[in-house]
Write the structure tokens for this entry.
Amino acid sequence: MKDSNNVVSMQGALKEQHRAAKGTLSLPPPVTAVRDRAQVLLAEQAKLVFAKVDDSLFAMAEKAHGQDEQDGLFQALRLLRVERRKVVERFSSHLADAFLVRDVPADERDDPYSADNLSLVHNDDLEQLVAVDTMVANAKRDFSEPLTEISLRLNTLLSVKIYDKNNPLGPDAICDAFVEACRPLDLHIRARLTLLKKFEQLVMANLGKLYEQCNDLFVEHGVLPSLKQQRRAARQQRPSPGAQGVRGGQATAGAAAQERAGSMSTGGHGGGHGLLPLGAGVAPMPPQDLLSHLGALQSHLPENYDGEEIQLLNINSLLQQRLVEGRQSASLAKMDSDIIKLVEMLFSFILEDRNLAEPIKSQLGRLQLPLLKVAIADKSFFSKGGHPARKLLNELADAATGWQAKEGYAADPLFKQISEVVAKVLAEFDQDIHIFSTLLESFRAFILRERKRAEKLERRIVDEADGKAKTQAARARVAAVMDALTAERDLPPVVSEWLEKVWSNMLFLTCIKEGTESESWNRDVRTARDLVWSVHAPMPDSRKQLLGLLPALQERLRAGVEAVSLSAFDARRMFAGLKDVYRERFALAQRLAEERTRKAREAVRDEVSEQVRSQAAQETPAPAADVKADSAQPAEAVVELPQMEELEQVVAQAEVAPAVADEVEALPESDSHWQQTFRLAQGSWFELKRGDEEQFRCRLAAVIKDIDQFIFVNRNGAKVAEFTRVELAHALRNAQLMPLDDGMLFERALQSVIGTVRKSRGEMS
């Protein structure tokens, strides 16, 4: 766990110092027996962890959102398979080291976590911190009684006073041993959290069996054998909740002491009352009491907030004021204090997020107290991405990304809906998180209706632009084919009319309906080529081929006439004109053939006369007469037509882009903003600036590939801008168009906080 995995890692360093100072310690036989039993049992459970996490990581990798995440998960999967034996060995070694017990300073005994600021000095990753803290806190709560028995028994055997913090079998020590064992591994954050989750499920949640066996082993060695019976009897003798018991007496005595301290004081925390530092002699406030105070503060927030800004709540200051007014004193447990600071940092990010308009931020900012209550009550809030409170916050922010605060925005349906959701949370949320799921479901239904209306308008705009682009591209492609077939060729007027009135339109329709990759397009291009060839085929050599082509060509031309709805009169006239052309072509072929025959006969006759005159030579005539006769045969000059492959290339090069203003400079392929235009995802939000005053939010609705055009719409689906690719690259370069951050609000806020802590830690080091 590279850099960000050294959760609670100071314990390992302290144990190393302790071992170096004292050398090898000799433990009492009962402690040695318990240590060995614990090592065996926990090592076996750790092996199960790696067997289960293997399946989980494989399933996660298959469903990963991106290539980097998938690669990271598969890499973690391979690494854990290779290193699992070493990790288990290190885990057992650290468990043994935990029995080199050190004393715990008084100010740490009642606090399950270190006193370092925000508990982040030992951890770069807040999600891992919360996962570790949560499993330790849960185990202490669930197994408090057997842990207390173990602590009492160890106290009789060891010279060091045993507390929760330094109990070698306590959740702190066991969790620390596992984290230390995994620390050398460089794992993806999701893999680390999954590994810790499996450790919690298979080891930490089952510590009851371990503690039961350890206590039984102590009893076998005669260590406080009657302890369980004594504790049971003590529980039975406790007074009922309604009686004046020990707790009530302590509370009364504590209140009296505070009153006396207040009367003797001339200043300070309200005469001794208020929020006192941890370790100042006042017990940490129980989570339920803290939730009650936060609930009271929540109920006193104003129902509506009409300003454009909202200030971040200083929770400590509000608690201080409330305690002073109630003449009470309390301190905050370190974990609760850290959560308060963390939530304040998260909402500080939210209130500065440029993705959201100020009125929306003012509404979301009012959720600080409710979400703090969620985090105090449910420690999985930070590590569980699917937590309903997080999902509701993300959904509200996502819906408002493209929203702008225009005049009279308070009546805007989206703003009213978000305000109502926030108001219901403040009014109805106590500790039941199901309200977030209920509100999320109704809000999603509202957004779905809104988006359906916007999508109809957006679809019309995109279809119109797409149709226009296809039309423009189709005309350019048809023109390219026609230019290639007719360039520098003298065609009969009727053939030119056929190409212009019928076959250009035929190709256009086919291109629009089926595209240039279709069989229909290839057939129609071939028909145009055959038509041009039919009036340029060299005669008389091509006479036979032309006779074979004309019936099929005539059928294709008739189909074209019907497809383009040519009038019957024009069709008869144009077919008649073609017949005249072909009649002339065949007449020409006949004349050329007759001329060729006549010249051949003359050539033979001349050759015979020549032979008679040269009888004296007594030589056999050379067979040159045939060659001579052939070379004398008249024929039309051959005019080459482009082959189908050449026509396909011409079409491919006929891509058309919309007109670009002369002042827009072309950018090199290596330009970063030019390259960025190829990576923009459809649906991404941007902030568009026009002039010094006008700016608004817009979303990339479509990229019209035929003409390389980008269409942007507002959240209502109306078109607000369109750019060619080069214009878009310049807009990005000039910060006229700025992408808004992708990702869910809560996750972006958490990442920002993590980055801030990492930076501050780097500066400290």
User: Anything to note?
Assistant: Confidence is low (pLDDT under 50) at residues 1-24, 106-124, 238-271, 624-633. The first strand starts at residue 274 and ends at 275. The CA atoms of residues 602 and 651 lie 50 Å apart.
